[in-house]
Design a protein that fits this description.
By secondary structure, this protein is α/β, with parallel strands linked by helices. It is built from twelve helices and 24 strands. The protein has three domains: 196 residues, FAD/NAD(P)-binding domain; 104 residues, FAD/NAD(P)-binding domain (3-Layer(bba) Sandwich); 111 residues, Enolase-like, domain 1 (2-Layer Sandwich), CATH 3.30.390. Helices cover 30% and strands 26% of the residues.
Length: 443
């Protein structure tokens, strides 16, 4: 009998296991593939590793204005894959070490949830006082004619291409689609993005999505367009009621992911629209059964899953905790990079608030100018409640936005007011100052 059994060793599962182990709980974690889940093995880590390689290549080719003349710069895809695989393996080893260090028992196999707080793994029965379901999500491929073609891949397969295509069509302008579009565009590959909505990356401030598209000069965007069929290299899509077409060697399906709830329907779990329903303590409708991460469909981000895992473990251990969603940061590791936290201006107004906003161009920041030049895109926008002065949202594009947004998240989580933020001392010269400058720019 274990104190906690965890099904799935992604960012939600393994973080929950580590936290529970540190609290002295007996923990069993079951994973059918590799420790780290999709994020470490086929998502966040390998994608960002390859993106960094392509960004270095792009920077090297345009480094002359900074006094760096790289000469004949070339990119070797196979060598980049070797480095990507090495990074992934090192991170897997790190997760394995964390499990051992915290006395977490790891079992490899597919788990089936049974009645009475029991699971079956390849015919062997395990029992726990509590069970945490952290089974993640999978790529969704829409039922489009031709989607099963040999030149159609998902984010899983594209990470291990044997050779680079001359052209790529990305179906979906969300985070995954845009990161891969940026990755291949950085290498000079022709990229087309087909997106059904009227804009890319739905959680981004609309002012910033326009900046991103304008700065991604090597990508052709087809917005408000619906893919109709794929016939070899030819893609047919509908735009403003008319059929249009384009050609690409490779097609990436990046229209989203869906929770892995297969087989759980028969357990009595409350599953609505394909996701496990949980409360703010991550409890399901079944006693002592919790669910965290993508399988809940609430916030399909690795760091959200990790926090959900912590909330579940804390409540199991008698520590009052709840999941809050108002200050979850997000980041897109494209060129240019973008990130945000809290409400956009449109969301704040839709909630009935009277808001004030201010934007600050990053080119007014000394460090940004020194490192990115005069023409690079970059903006910080802040959204504030006009009546209370509370910071509601921070939205960034350019520079190291993903590194700045954690500070913004802390401010929003703490419900800091404008006058309080103005008293915070930021290091100089640093790009982080752009947040403070944007706050000072408020009328």
């Amino acid at each position: 009998m274990y104190d906690i059994i965890i099904i799935g060793a992604g960012p939600g599962g393994y973080v929950a296991a580590e936290r529970a182990g540190k609290m002295g709980k007996s923990v069993l974690i079951v994973e059918k593939e590799h420790l780290g889940g999709v994020c470490l093995n086929r998502g966040c880590i390998p994608t960002k590793t390859l993106l960094n390689s392509t960004k270095l290549y792009k920077q090297a080719k345009s480094s002359a204005p900074y006094g760096v003349h790289a000469g004949d710069v070339s990119f070797n895809w196979n060598e980049a894959l070797v480095w990507k695989n090495e990074v992934v393996q090192l991170q897997r080893n790190g997760v394995s070490f964390l499990m051992k260090e915290n006395n977490v028992e790891v079992v490899k196999g597919s788990a089936e949830l049974l009645e009475g707080k029991k699971i079956s793994v390849d015919g062997k029965i395990y029992e726990g006082e509590n069970i945490i379901i952290s089974t993640g999500s999978s790529n969704f491929v829409p039922p489009v004619p031709g989607a099963e073609g040999n030149n159609v891949v998902t984010s899983d397969e594209i990470l291990d291409l044997k050779e680079l295509p001359e052209s790529l069509a990305v179906i979906g302008g969300g985070v995954i689609g845009m990161e891969f579009a940026s990755l291949f565009s950085n290498l000079g590959i022709k990229v087309d993005v087909i997106e059904m909505m009227d804009e890319i990356i739905p959680m981004m401030d609309k002012d910033h999505t326009r900046v991103m598209r304008r700065d991604m000069k090597g990508i052709n965007f087809h917005l408000s367009s619906q893919l109709l069929k794929i016939e070899g290299r030819k893609l047919t899509y509908k735009f403003e009621g008319k059929e249009e077409s384009l050609e690409a060697d490779l097609v990436l399906m990046a229209v989203g992911r869906r929770p892995n709830t297969g087989g759980l329907e028969k357990t009595g779990l409350d599953i609505n629209k394909g996701r496990i329903v949980v409360n703010e303590k991550m409890q399901t409708n079944l006693p002592c059964i919790y669910a965290v991460g993508d399988v809940t469909g609430l916030s399909m981000l690795a760091h959200s899953a990790s926090r959900m895992g912590e909330v579940a473990v804390n409540n199991i251990c008698g520590i009052q905790d709840r999941m809050r969603y108002n200050a979850i940061p997000w980041a897109v590791y494209t060129s240019p990079e973008a990130a945000g936290c809290g409400m956009t201006e449109a969301e704040a107004k839709a909630s009935g608030r009277v808001v004030k906003t201010a934007s600050m161009l990053m080119k007014h920041n000394g460090r940004f100018m020194a490192e990115h030049g005069k023409t690079a895109a970059g903006t910080c926008k802040v959204v504030v409640d006009a009546e209370t002065g509370v910071l509601l949202g921070v939205h960034l594009i350019g520079g190291i936005s993903s590194e700045l947004v954690a500070g913004a998240a802390a401010m929003i989580e703490s419900e800091l007011r404008v006058n309080e933020i103005k008293q915070i001392i930021f290091p100089h010269p640093s790009l982080s100052e752009v947040i403070r400058d944007a706050v000072w720019a408020l009328n």
